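In the laboratory, one determines a bound structure by crystallizing the protein with its ligand and collecting diffraction data. In a computational setting the workflow is compressed into a single prediction: the sequence and the ligand go in, and a structural description comes out. We illustrate the idea with magnesium ion.
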Amino acid sequence: MPIISLAIQKGGSGKTTTTINLAAALQREGRSVLLIDADTQANLTQSLGIIDEPERSVYTELKKEIAGESSDLQQVIVETKSGLHLVPSSLELAVAELELVSVYGREQLFSWMLEQLRSRYDFIFIDCPPAFGMLTVNALVASDHVIIPLQGEFLPMKGVQSFIHHFHAIKKKLNPKLNLLGFVLIKFDERINMNRQICGQLEREFGSKVFHTHIRSNIQLAKAQEEGLDIFSFDKHAHGADDYKALAEEFLEKLETGKVSSIKENTE
Ligand SMILES: Nc1ncnc2c1ncn2[C@@H]1O[C@H](COP(=O)(O)OP(=O)(O)OP(=O)(O)O)[C@@H](O)[C@H]1O
Ligand SMILES: [Mg+2]
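The predicted complex, in structure-token form:
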């Protein structure tokens, strides 16, 4: 089933928050979801209440692949307080960026590692680090779709141009099936001029790739992370819960329409 990366090299864009809460919203709709923390900061792992366990992480399995042995991600999956399945990260993952450089097939390791798990979940989400290094490349090569969360400000918009450049290179050379599912504006406030301008600019450039659902600023989202919970388990009446529920609905719709148009493309 589809693998979706949340990526953009700009830090603090809402990748981790969107990974957790979009996944939790889908889980509430009865979908099975696996989360992969591919960030050395291990924010996803910590925000879901899991203590950094160096002996059970994405790195312990990646290390086996780097050494030419076979890995088993299934072994390191943990269940979070919210009942989400997670492959945790650990600070040691930082070493992988260096180790991967000299490995054959270095861009494909995540693809192989995730292949066995694909059929067991409706969706697999990968939370990427804020850099375009080997971990992000691996995540994008393993993915069917990428979602780009960003704040409606000038600097994140600069980051988009550079990300799109890398996206095209990966699509051309390493993963032709990679689809840009869309941009999600986070900490969005309709009253702020800059937020509206950036949204307009994205829509002019990328059209329907911009999600109609915007995630408003909501302190409960940050507090939920402190408690190691998703927003629905922490405060289901918060704006953040409404917004991520709406995002999950739009996400499912986008995937459905995408399927129809790719079937059409194939038969035309
Ligand atoms: N809609 C929101 N309202 C208020 N705070 C938010 C919202 N979305 C995210 N945050 C907070 O903003 C901060 C950055 O978000 P997050 O960690 O999701 O970004 P990120 O892109 O994963 O960052 P990094 O690139 O460092 O991994 C976090 O403290 C998070 O709790
Ligand atoms: Mg993050």
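Residues 263-268 have pLDDT under 50 and may be disordered. Keep in mind that any predicted model is a hypothesis to be tested, not a measurement.
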